[in-house]
């Protein structure tokens, strides 16, 4: 289980932007890493569009936003294009990263699925925030407020 104060487990995943993204390559910047169940579904669309609309405020806080699901890079590209998303979507079709981050869960109706979760990682690669089973509406603003808050608050 990923805990606050622990080093963020590194990974490299394919992006919808035709390349791979390694978490460790983002050291020196804050990272908002959010895991979501499925492209182009109602809750996931609300959440992605909220991050899209808030991206200038994340940029101003020197924070990178990354979305991760088990959908393919092609699915991510279609989702990105349909909604004008302005941040990378990463694909974990093998579920390896999803399992390592503790978000690949049993669901009573859907079987295995991704638990909507967000992790805040600092410039040194340390986990500074963990939110699980999040409500997609308004979550991007909540995370932005946590980023903007003084350290220790």
How is the secondary structure organized here?
Elements: E1 12-15, E2 19-22, E3 30-35, H1 42-60, E4 63-69, H2 73-83, E5 89-91, H3 96-100, E6 104-107, E7 111-114, E8 117-121, E9 127-132, H4 139-148
Parallel strand pairs: 3-4, 4-5
Antiparallel strand pairs: 1-2, 3-8, 6-7, 8-9
Helix pairs in contact: 1-4
Short description:
With 153 residues, this protein is of the alpha/beta class.
Describe the overall structure.
- With 153 residues, the protein is an alpha/beta fold.
- The protein has a single domain, classed as 3-Layer(aba) Sandwich (Glutaredoxin).
- 29% of the residues lie in helices and 28% in strands.
- It is built from 4 helices and 9 strands.
- Strands 5-4-3-8-9 form a 5-stranded mixed sheet.
- Strand 6 and strand 7 form a beta hairpin.
- The longest helix is centred in the middle third of the chain and has 19 residues, at 42-60.
- The two termini are 23 Å apart.
- The mean pLDDT is 94.
Features of the shown structure:
single chain; 153 residues; alpha/beta; Glutaredoxin; five-stranded mixed sheet; two-stranded antiparallel ribbon; 28% strand; globular
